[in-house]
Each structure stands twice: as C-alpha cells, then as structure tokens.
Amino acid sequence: MTLSALLRRFAAAYLVLLIVVGVGLNLAGAKSSAGGNMAALLGAVLWVCMDFAKKNGRYFTREEKNRVVLGMLVIDLVMQMAGSVAIGVFAGASALSLGPMVLILLFTCVLHALVIWFFVGFAGKQHAAAEARRNKNG
User: Fold this and answer.
1) Domains contained in the chain, number
2) What are the angstrom distances between the C-alpha of 14 and each of 57, 65, 133?
3) Where on the phi/psi map is residue 29: left (φ > 0), alpha (ψ -120 to 50), or beta?
4) Which mean pLDDT values do the consecutive 10-residue runs of the chain (138 residues) have?
C-alpha cells in the first residue's frame, strides 16, 4: 500500500466514521459530539496504520511517519473547517463570530495533531509487539 492510498483510505474512513458516530450520538440524544469526533479520528488512524503494516509487512520509516501524520492532519483540518463552516452557515452565524471559530479550530488542530502523532506511534508499537509474538511462536 502506498502512502497516498493510505491517506485516501484515511479520508474515506474518517468521513464515514464521523457521519456514523454523529448520527448515532444524535439519535441517542447527546448534545455534544466532541468525544465521538475523537473516537472517529482514533478509529480511522489506527485502522489505516495497522492495515498499512499488514499489507506491506512493515511499519513506517521515520520519514513516512512524518508524511503520514502531516497528511492526516491536513485531511482532519479540512474536514473540521468544512464542518465548522457548514454549521456556521446553517446556524446563521455572523461575521463577528469568525474570531472565536478560528481559535476553536486552532485548538482543535493542535489537539488532533497530538492525538494523530501519538496513535500513529501507538499503532507502530502494536505492530512490533504482534510481530515479536509471531516470531516467538512461529
């Protein structure tokens, strides 16, 4: 699997998970979906990283990891911005609310960058542990 294929798969998985989790939380009567958004992000990150390792028989090199984290962050930021703009338009937000929206997006970007970086590394450790078990038993 190439890195571009991984990023396309991440974008698709993340979008689907955001929709499914959002609809599920809405049907359950939840007022906030911040936890659901984070769960969708974690699920998409772990799934595509573990799938890459399985299909390629290895995990990312340092350079690949940096490119993957940056690519996932860009995809995440685009989706967060699109969602924020859509919510703002549907809610009839004024131009004066642009400042707080930018600050919220900045905070979300920093938080998601840390989460993506951590869980890409976590998936690598899980892959290494699985390989060690396989080599020990096999």
Assistant:
1) 1
2) 24, 18, 30
3) left
4) 96 93 85 82 95 94 96 92 68 63 84 95 93 85
Q: Which two tokens stand for residue 117?
A: 């970086």
> Looking at residue 30, what is its pLDDT?
79
The tokens describing 87, both together, are 């919510």
Question: Which residues have CB under 8 Å from 39's CB, separation 6+?
Answer: 17, 21
Task: Give the largest Cα separation in the chain, rounded.
Answer: 63
Q: Residue 75 is part of which domain span?
A: 3-137
Distance CA 35, CA 2 (A): 30
Q: Report pTM.
A: 0.85
Q: Which amino acid is at 126?
A: Q
Q: Is the separation of the CB atoms in 129 and 53 below 8 Å?
A: no
What angle, 0 to 180 degrees and rounded to 10, lies between the N-to-C axes of helices 3-27 and 62-91?
40
